Amino acid sequence: MALKRTTKCIATILGIGAAALLARPAAAQGLPLNRLEPAPAGDRFFGVESPFAAGSATPHLMLLGDYAHNPLVLKRTSDDSNVGHVVQDQLFLHLNASLALFNRLNLNVELPIALAQNGGSPSVGGVSFNSPSGATIGDLRLGARLRLLGDYHDAFQLAVGGYVWVPTAEKDVYVGDGKARGMPQLILGGGAGRVIWSLAGGVEFARQQWYGGNSVTGVKQGTMIRAGAGIAVQLGAARHWQIGPEVNFAVPTQDISKRNTNLEAMLDIRWRVVHDFEIGIGGGPGLTNGIGTPDFRGVLMLAYTPEQRRDRDGDGIPDDEDACPDVPGVKSDDPAKNGCPESDRDGDGILDKDDACPDVPGVASSDPSKNGCPLPKDRDGDGIPDDVDACPDVPGVPNADPKLNGCPPDRDGDGIPDAEDACPDVKGVRSPDPKKNGCPPDSDGDGIPDDVDACPFEKGVPDPDPTKNGCPKHVRVRENKIEILQQVQFDTGKATIRKVSDELLDEVAGVLKEHPEVTKVEIQGHTDNRGAKQMNMKLSQGRADAVEKALVSRGVDKARLTTHGYGPEQPIADNKTDAGRQTNRRVEFKILEKAPRHHEDRGDHAN
Question: Which pTM was predicted?
Fold first, then answer.
């Protein structure tokens, strides 16, 4: 025979003669049989601790009923038949209280009360196993836990903790062994979305003893490794329902066997009835035959445990009640404003909810209809209060622009009153010249305002074509080149510039002076492919040098210029036709270097 969840029967091991020698009553030995150690009140699972200390000076209270069926049974080894129940039913009520401090430290006290225990007091080979009966108090448990990492809603949290059991129980009724016990723990846990989890483990240091006999016949009990794991899903809009499994495991550190290995599983269901109260139920089988592992365990819980509600902005108003959950605010009876910051749009120190003029700075008043409104001062008598009148001493008109409100009319909106504006219907800039004040600027001084000047930084001439108006007749400044609209003319086969190109070169020189940001220009000479290449290379270089000399003579700094003759190497047209060859005989101006442009301040540009 054998003890299911205990040791082999003594009579079987020693034989009939030995059994006769041992035939005597055997009182129940000191043994804390219950393998479920409830987690502190406020934790997320029944038997697996959570790492977070939920609250700051916050109490948590729990009543937990714990029923175990057949936690200690004798069975025959030959046919696994039932010999008798040492403990058939065991019902505990756990009184559990915690105090969470600083959202970091949890202090816990738990007192188990065995409300009912029973069994058949079976005898084997003349040895009696006395069964407990009646109610009794178990060992008082004291615990502490310190959170090291993670907040309540974080995916990963870490804590260290432990328990001490004070020997307050009777020794021989399966609720204690008359000795103090202790267990340090490491606890992990967290949550991601609606899934929460916990994992806890530690070593319970306890008195070593043999249950059911000696080292030959009994099962060794004592120091044990304990571990538990739980995972659950939170359901409902407010996440007030929780469902998921948990497992609890215990095994001694010496003489490990299936008779002293404990493994239980439970399915937990919890419901937060209101914000501060939870009820829960759970149940599941024992998965091994170790001492204390029941066929079935069921739990029922009632707890006061203040809800740890999300508060992303930290204003003390839970997210599910906070109309502005990401911005710290204040409480309000209006759900649409609760948790939102109090506003003061006009910045006059009077909150919008009390301000009769929330968009105009004003002064405090005992009259609610005037509180926060400006004083009715209007020096210029234009009907616009002085505190919002940009021209309080000159009668004006209302304007959406605070800088123009109450100022004289300004039809074009350029900030210059019509009475001073030489161009009252066209936006312009201030100028000390009354004839130009309020008119558009003329950056290049060619007499054509910038707003209609297609080349506002090069002096040009009027043109009916808007794309050419105000531009030089023959020259355009592009991103990488100075484009000429006519060719520089040379005597045939020579590097002598014809008189007809003087006007063109005058414009090129003028443009270079107007664009000091162009710091280096390559004057390129090109020819067609007729004649010897060496002669064309020499001719193209000579023509580029001639143009450089002409520009220097017109006041262009020679340091800004460089020349290069490319001969026939870079045609841009077909050299097989007269027109193509004419196009290929050309001078080009390539921009090699540019600096940021700095415009000179001019009186007619001042704002």
Answer: 0.53
